[in-house]
Amino acid sequence: MKEDIKLKELEQKILAGVIPQHLAIIMDGNGRWAAEKGLPRHEGHRQGVESVRATVRNCNELGISVLTLFAFSTENWQRPISEVNYLMSLPEKYFDSELPELIRNNVQVRLIGETGKLPRKVQKAVREGSEKTKDNDGMVLNFALNYGSRDEILRAVNLIIKDLKEKNIKKKIDENAFSDYLYTAGLPDPDLLIRTSGELRISNFLLWQIAYSELYFTEVYWPEFSRMHLLEAIDTFQQRKRRYGKI
Ligand code: FPP
Question: How far is the CA of 31 from the centre of ligand 1 (A)?
Fold first, then answer.
């Protein structure tokens, strides 16, 4: 009961302030959460999906415009095959159960990363998710799957070289033009980046886009990341002074 009151109070406080337009999250600590409970690692990922469901709902309700979730990195292929297979089964399960609600809530699903290299069933699930929500104009939900930021930047450079050559133009590439070649083209840069589980790293996530993002690290493992934790992160964000190099 006391917790409920605290939650409501924090929510009201936050809603009176500036809500981050774009929130990015490195969802970390699924394995350690499971290990501490004596469970197999996949149980941590299964519970991690529950946090995804809740966080998507919470962000949408709070009026966040873009939510980007780091679900699988280009480096995650190096995990044991059984774990990779389990992680690859999650998008299908998630969209099977959540798509009707995402459609109802006007959420637009997008994918960022080298999705062409994902197993066919994953590609099918995410294609269906983005197809069926493409006309929604509410919160954009970016799933980063087989995503690596250095790969993304190199891909952009190569696309630019190709474009300049093929179109025989010699235009100067400024920051805005470069951003248009990234997977996140057209979206605002993250205002806030959250990483759970106590790790203090960026791990090749949105390196270009987070140049001026506020960073928030919490000890909480992703499967336990609740609405209260989200509100606390936004509360901290609202107390930061964003100076963008000025004084
Ligand atoms: C990091 O925890 C987490 C991941 C590599 C996977 C994150 C994926 C989800 C939370 C589910 C994604 C959901 C959908 C719908 C695609 P870890 O395993 O590295 O944890 P550890 O550092 O404690 O071992």
Answer: 7
AA letter at 83? E
- 25 assigned to some structural domain: yes
- Provide residues with CB under 6 Å of ligand 1: 27-32, 45, 48-49, 52, 71, 76, 87, 90-91, 94, 143, 197, 222
- The tens digit of pLDDT for each residue in 2-59 reads 889 999 999 999 999 999 999 999 999 999 999 999 999 999 999 999 999 999 999 9
Q: Which token pair is 22?
A: 């774009």
* pLDDT given at position 2: 87
Residue 183 belongs to some domain of the structure: no
Name the residue at shortest CA distance from atom 24 of ligand 1.
31
Q: Which tokens sit at 4?
A: 């409920």
Residue 169 has pLDDT above 80, yes or no: no
Mean pLDDT of 83-91: 97
- Condensed to tens digits (0 to 9), the pLDDT of residues 66-80 reads 999 999 999 999 999
**Residue 11 lies inside a defined structural domain of this protein:** no
> E strands, 74-133, where?
108-112
CATH code of residue 119: 3.40.1180.10
Whose C-alpha lies nearest to ligand 1, atom 15? 91
Round to whole Å and give the CA distance between 101 and 57.
9
Examine residue 7 and state whether it is found in any structural domain, yes or no. no
Specify the number of domains making up the chain: 1
